[in-house]
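User: I'm preparing a small set of examples for a lab meeting where we compare how different chains pack in three dimensions. I only have the primary sequence for this one, and I'd like the structure in C-alpha cell form so I can line it up with the others. Please keep the answer compact; I'll paste it straight into my notes.
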Amino acid sequence: MLAVEELENPGWNPTRLVYYVDGKIDFMIGALSVLDRGVSQDRPFRVLLDKDGLADRIGIDRSPPSPPSAEDFRRCVYWFTAAALMQAKDIVRDEPWKAKVRDRDLKDELLEMIEWDHRVRYGSDFDTWHLGSHMRAWMYTNVQDALERCWAGFSLDDGRGALLASIELFDRLCSRTADAFGYDSFDRERVGAEVEHILTLTA
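Assistant: Understood. Below is the C-alpha cell output for the 203-residue chain.
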C-alpha cells in the first residue's frame, strides 16, 4: 500500500481510496438495509463478491442531470468573476501560489459552464462525465483548443495571458448557455475592463 485517502460521507459510511503499486481500490462500508430503499449507480459496475445475493437490488440510473436553475447559473457567474478578480490581484502582487489557488476556483466554474454549454448544444442526456474525465472524447475540439491558452506557469506574463483567455472562453460559453435558458449572461465588458485595469497596476 502506498497511500490511503479518507473521504467524508454523511452518516456512518466509511469511504476509503487505497493506492497500491499498479492499482487503486475505492470502497465504502454501508449497512445492507440501505439496499431495501434502493440504490443506483450512474455507471455500469461489476460485482466481485455477493454472498447475500443482493447485488440485483443495485440499479443503473442514467437520468440526465437537471438544467441549471437561475440561481445555479448566477452563482457560477459570480464565483467565476470573484475568482478572476482575485487572481488578477495575486498576479500583479507576484503571488503565484495564491494565483494558482484562485485559478483552480475559476477553472471549477469554467468546467461547469463547459458542461452546461455542451448539454445545451447536444441534448440534456449528453454525457460530460465528472471533473473533466474523458474530455478528449466528449469536449468539442474548439473548446479544447481554447483551453490550451488557459493555463500558465509562474511568470506574470503567463498568468495575465491565461487569465484573459479563461475570461474570453467563459464569456463565449456563458453567452450561448444564457441565451438558451433565458438567463442574464456574464458581463464581459465590465469584468474584463476591471481585470485589465488591475493587471496594469504594479505590486
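A couple of notes for your slides: The chain has six helices and five strands. Helices lie at 70-92, 96-122, 135-138, 141-147, 156-181, 188-200.

User: Perfect, thanks.
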